[in-house]
């Protein structure tokens, strides 16, 4: 874990990280009943993954 106690901009200022301080975020997805990282996909499957549209459920208006 990173110790931020020596940072001077801890109030409500934006914390700016250099590229060497950043960490990659690994994305996993469920494929054919099991989970695997997207980084292990081939080029075609990666393209399919990024074209996915996520379902967003809305509340229905009930008749009174």
H and E order: EEH
Number of helices: 1
Q: Distance between the terminal alpha carbons, to the nearest Å?
A: 54 Å
Which strand order does the major sheet show? 1-2
Structural class: alpha+beta
- Please give the share of residues in helix: 10-25%
Tell me about the biggest sheet?
2 strands, antiparallel
Low-confidence stretches: none
Q: Which value, in Å, is the CA radius of gyration?
A: 20 Å
Question: How are the elements arranged and paired?
Answer:
Layout (H helix, E strand, L loop, with lengths): L27 E4 L2 E4 L5 H8 L14
What does the model show?
The protein contains one helix and two strands. The N and C termini lie far apart (54 Å). By secondary structure, the protein is α+β, with helices and mostly antiparallel strands. The protein has one helix spanning 43-50; strands spanning 28-31, 34-37. A hairpin with a 2-residue loop joins strand 1 and strand 2. It is flat, with a radius of gyration of 20 Å. A two-stranded antiparallel sheet has the order 1-2.
Labels describing this entry:
single chain, 64 residues, alpha+beta, two-stranded antiparallel ribbon, 1 helix
């Amino acid at each position: 874990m990173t110790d931020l106690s020596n940072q001077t901009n801890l109030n409500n200022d934006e914390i700016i990280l250099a590229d060497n301080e950043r960490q990659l975020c690994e994305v996993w997805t469920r494929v054919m009943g099991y989970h695997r990282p997207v980084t292990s996909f081939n080029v075609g499957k990666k393209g399919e993954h990024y074209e996915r549209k996520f379902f967003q459920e809305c509340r229905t208006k009930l008749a009174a």
